[in-house]
Amino acid sequence: MSPDWKPPAAISRFKLVRTITQSRGKRDHWENTQENLFCLNALSDYARQYETSEPQLQIAVDFAGQQIGTAQLTSLVDPPVAVTRPLSAADAGRQAKIELSKQGEGRFYYAARLAYALADEQAQRVNSGIEIRREYAVERAGKFVLLQKPHDHPPWRVGTGRFVCLGSHRAALCGGGRPGSGRAGAGQ
């Protein structure tokens, strides 16, 4: 990026940098050598222009008006800080704001994410138009025997050199049918 280059009015340099860093995903590189070169040059130019002084920041993170964490940034190479909050049953359907407030000088960059996984006892199959099942069978006495739950649940122990068969099955509803309506199609 040359020093006299200016982005179009609708695009800010901050948005361009965010696009570059997010396109990398969780990898430590971009798609190929050329992308690595161009992206690192662009980030280097950005840092020379906008990241010249060390931050002196104290950041507070609030969720729904309650503080859930703080961070202190005093160097351009400080490691990322993660502030987490476990979900509770009271959070279902709730709208709440995450607010970040800073005291001091400097820039900080953040991302907010929501992730959840159902506990095993709460997880259940739901047929919303497509159903996928996976089955494992192991060869025993010349026949394939389907591994069953709960006593054979993963991790299954299969002896070395045994043949294992993996089967997947799908059933899909066709034409807007509902389970039990008789308008379902199935395939394998």
Q: Could you explain the architecture of this structure?
A:
By secondary structure, the protein is α+β, with helices and mostly antiparallel strands. Helix content is 15%, strand content 28%. It contains 2 helices and 7 strands, in the order ααβββββββ. It has helices at 13-23, 33-50, and strands spanning 56-63, 66-73, 98-105, 130-140, 143-146, 164-173, 184-187. A 4-stranded antiparallel β-sheet has the order 5-4-6-7, with no helix packed on it. A 3-stranded antiparallel β-sheet has the order 2-1-3, with no helix packed on it. A hairpin with a 2-residue loop joins strand 1 (56-63) and strand 2 (66-73). The longest helix is centred in the first third of the chain and has 18 residues, at 33-50. The radius of gyration is 26 Å and the shape is extended. It starts with 12 loop residues before the first helix and ends with a strand. The relative contact order is 0.09. Residues 176-188 have low confidence and may be disordered.
Short summary:
The chain is α+β, with helices and mostly antiparallel strands and 188 residues long. The chain has helices at residues 13-23, 33-50; strands spanning 56-63, 66-73, 98-105, 130-140, 143-146, 164-173, 184-187.
Rg to the nearest angstrom? 26 Å
Helical segment tally? 2
**Range of helix content:** 10-25%
Instruction: Report, as a whole number of angstroms, the end-to-end distance.
Output: 53 Å
The coarse silhouette is extended
The biggest sheet amounts to: 4 strands, antiparallel
Would you report the number of β strands?
7
List the quaternary state of the chains: single chain
Would you tell me the structural class of the helices and strands?
alpha+beta
User: Mean pLDDT across all residues, rounded?
Assistant: 78
